[in-house]
Design a protein that fits this description.
Largest sheet: 8 strands, mixed
Number of helices: 2
Structural class: mainly beta
Order of helices and strands: HHEEEEEEEEEEEEEEEEEEEEE
Strand order of the largest sheet: 4-6-9-8-7-10-11-5
Strand content: 35-45%
Length: 293
């Protein structure tokens, strides 16, 4: 008798647990990544890269290796996860040593990693420098409308005439093909702001012309992006400047205040108001005052 009672209790527990799990799954569908999280109607955090929360999990949007390569090569168009069509004009800037003979190879692949277009990016000015040089490339392709996925990748390879694997490098950017309604639920952003945060003056007496050692220095800090007119007390987004002072924030069109975070009492950093327009990456430098006079 006790054996039957025990089995009855176990069966009730299993059925109850199964029913509860089913109800929870109805309220919070299981998701496997950022795209599924967005498509399920979950909230997307205003950050870069964007993040989506579902249940107890947080899913981050794939933007390729843009952050890792930002000191070597930057792409203004297309932006990560942007819808592209043929012909695709790729534009950005790369340090001179990314080029060889003023060019480097560019490849477009489909969701399965198959190459569907190849081209050459060419420098728009003298490339014999270690500074950033603007480039442009054109890719003509035909995407399979019936493919399993409309996802692909744009790969910008460092030119490597030596052929040595240790000299290989590449920037990889995820993109979307052709579905103009963006039906997979991912919102493409192609606008924002970037620039440098500079710290100065570095010397108590400025010379004219200024001495090289007295030039403003790059400042590694946090930049708060405040949506003008918003009732929220928290920043719309925050980004960090790197060791060279470079920062970048992808933002929807609108009016924002940019505030580099200093210290108390110094350095004291300025706030700049900007208007972000569609399809434009605005260049804005921010300055922080050391208090040296």
């Amino acid at each position: 008798m006790k054996t039957y009672t025990t089995w009855f209790i176990v069966a009730v527990v299993i059925l109850t647990g199964t029913s509860l799990a089913y109800k929870l799954s109805e309220k919070s569908p299981l998701v496997a990544g950022f795209e599924e999280c967005v498509a399920a109607g979950n909230p997307v955090m205003e950050s870069y890269p964007r993040q989506c929360r579902s249940g107890g999990g947080t899913f981050t949007e794939n933007i390729g290796n843009e952050f890792e390569k930002s000191d070597l090569i930057r792409v203004d168009f297309p932006r990560p996860n942007q819808i592209v069509k043929s012909p695709l004009i790729v534009a950005g800037e790369a340090r001179g040593n990314w080029f060889f003979e003023a060019s480097f190879p560019v490849v477009l692949t489909d969701w399965d990693g198959l190459i569907i277009a190849q081209g050459i990016a060419t420098a728009k000015r003298d490339w014999m420098t270690t500074e950033f040089v603007p480039f442009e490339a054109e890719l003509v392709f035909s995407a399979d409308k019936d493919a399993y996925s409309n996802r692909g990748a744009l790969i910008l390879r460092k030119d490597n005439p030596s052929g040595l694997p240790e000299n290989d490098d590449a920037l990889e950017i995820p993109i979307l093909f052709g579905r103009a309604d963006n039906s997979d639920g991912v919102l493409a952003l192609e606008s924002g702001v970037r620039g440098k945060v500079l710290l100065g003056p570095a010397c108590p007496v400025m010379q004219n012309p200024p001495l090289p050692q007295c030039a403003d220095k790059p400042y590694e800090t946090i930049i708060q992006v405040i949506a003008i007119g918003s009732s929220k007390s928290s920043p719309f987004a925050t980004v960090e400047s790197d060791k060279e002072g470079n920062y970048k924030a992808i933002l929807p069109p609108g009016e924002y205040g940019l505030q580099a975070v200093g210290k108390n009492p110094l350095p004291r950093c300025e706030t700049k108001n900007v208007t972000i327009e569609p399809n434009i990456i605005l260049e804005v430098n921010l300055s922080c005052d050391t208090g040296i006079r």
